[in-house]
Design brief:
Blueprint lengths: L15 H11 L8 E4 H7 L2 E5 L10 H9 L9 E4 L3 H13 L3 E5 L5 H9 L3 E4 L4 H15 L2 E2 L6 H17 L5 E5 L4 H10 L7 E7 L4 H7 L21 H10 L2 E5 L1 H15 L9 H8 L1 H4 L3 E5 L7 H14 L3 E9 L4 H11 L3 E8 L9 E9 L3 H13 L3 E4 L4
Parallel strand pairs: 2-10, 3-4, 3-6, 4-5, 7-8, 7-10, 8-9
Antiparallel strand pairs: 1-2, 11-13, 11-14, 12-13
EC number: 4.3.1.19
Protein name: Threonine ammonia-lyase
Catalytic activity: L-serine = pyruvate + NH4(+)
């Protein structure tokens, strides 16, 4: 009796051969960024941590790979390309389009930070500001595509984009062939789709874990059948995508092992650690992989883990805020509220205690009017710099022993 063979699973939209072909196309014009072990982060997390420095691309993000792979496959008579993007896709596409002599148009929401508009224009693109949201900018880009005969280049839901992004994994596995796990940020899903395609084609098993911000669990919702909201201001705006791609969803569902959600505090901590330890600047999305290890250390302990630092385009003021908040959480920077009596020498006696404890005073704020204290009462907020949390605690103990009421302003 003849046996009936099991049905063959349908082929996915992108194969390992597609990624290898993409690499051959783009390799002369893309930085083969290093994959380096971080001894300090390995000690901190309990995993052996390898970092892929995609923030060292010319436009400081991996998006160049997929954009260039797509541009090189367009017909010779292409009149121009268009995209909707307020981030790294805009810069990657416009840079390589300009280099290849292809006119590019980028539609951005009107509230896009001026630095991103200027950087994209600097790569030769025509920038059009339209609408208050990405959806409005996207709709306008598709309208211009039809009206002007332009070619729309999607930021993630295109097999050519996905194949280009997958070249990140080819380079990582050439540098470290025995990686156990890849931890990859997910926005629309282009990067993880390409990398999972490569990882799951290897001779040894490689776990592929996606990472999303808790505020934007869009792919997590689609894979797990949940309906968590996607909204809010996240540090990882590069992966703040409300609706992931259809092609990418198919690949993620088939090839990834799990998706981890990370909170804003872990994202901030990861950005700060990468700057302090590795001396490298990453944006929130670029730090998402490390944030996952910090959130769930037991899950990755003892494994060889590859993390993609997928981008480094972070606003300098935002970066400064992240670093200062991290100093505050560690106790090295603090704001103390001290209740005084409004009399001569009151502030001098408090300052003397700071001096005795070896604490540097940065700023002093007096509050006499807008307070619930009696008319002779005084609140003083003192920003100070200490060596660590223990040093701060010694200062607060000394103030209380001197009969001062003191409290610390805590961060969320």
């Amino acid at each position: 009796m003849a046996t009936q063979s099991a049905p063959t699973a349908p082929a996915l939209p992108v194969s390992l051969d597609d990624v290898v072909a993409a690499r051959m196309r783009i390799m002369d014009s893309i930085v083969a960024t290093p994959t380096l072990v971080s001894r300090t982060l390995s000690d901190l997390t309990g995993a052996t941590v390898y970092l892929k420095f995609e923030n060292l691309q010319f436009t400081a993000a991996y998006k160049e790979r997929g954009a260039l792979n797509t541009l090189l496959q367009l017909p010779a008579n292409t009149s121009g390309v268009i995209a909707a993007s307020a981030g790294n896709h805009a810069q990657g596409l416009s840079y390589h389009a300009n280099r290849l002599g292809i006119p590019s148009t980028i539609v951005m929401p009107k509230n896009t930070p001026i630095v991103k508009v200027t950087q994209t224009q600097g790569h030769g693109a025509t920038v059009i500001l339209e609408g208050e949201t990405f959806d409005a900018a996207y709709a306008h880009a598709r309208k211009l595509e039809a009206e002007q005969g332009l070619t729309f280049v999607h930021p993630f839901d295109d097999p050519r984009i996905i194949a280009g992004q997958g070249t990140v994994a080819l380079e990582m596995l050439e540098a470290v062939p025995d990686l156990d796990t890849l931890v990859v940020p997910i926005g629309g899903g282009g990067l993880i789709s390409g990398m999972a395609t490569v990882a799951k084609a290897q001779a040894h098993p490689i776990e592929v874990i996606g990472v999303q911000a808790e505020l934007y669990p869009s792919m997590y919702n689609q894979i797990n059948g949940t309906e968590m909201p996607c909204a809010g201001d996240t540090l990882a705006e590069g992966i703040a995508v409300k609706v992931p791609g259809g092609i990418t969803r198919e690949i993620v569902a088939a090839l990834t092992d799990d998706i981890v959600l990370v909170g804003e505090r872990r994202l901030e901590e990861a950005v700060s650690l990468l700057l302090q330890i590795e001396k490298t600047v990453v944006e929130g999305a670029g730090a998402a992989g490390l944030a996952a290890l910090l959130s769930e250390p037991e899950r990755f302990r003892g494994k060889k883990v590859g993390i993609v630092l997928c981008g480094g385009n972070i606003d300098t003021r935002l970066l400064a805020n992240v670093l200062l908040r991290d100093l505050a959480r560690s106790g090295r920077l603090a704001r103390l509220r001290v209740r005084l009596q409004d009399r001569p020498g009151a502030l001098f006696h408090v300052a003397r205690i700071f001096h005795e404890q070896g604490v540097n005073i940065i700023e002093v704020y007096h509050q006499r009017i807008f307070t619930t204290l009696p008319a002779k009462g005084l609140i003083t907020d003192i920003e100070c710099e200490t060596r660590d949390r223990a040093h701060l605690e010694r200062l607060m103990t000394a103030l209380r022993r001197a009969q001062y009421e003191v409290s610390q302003t805590e961060l969320a």
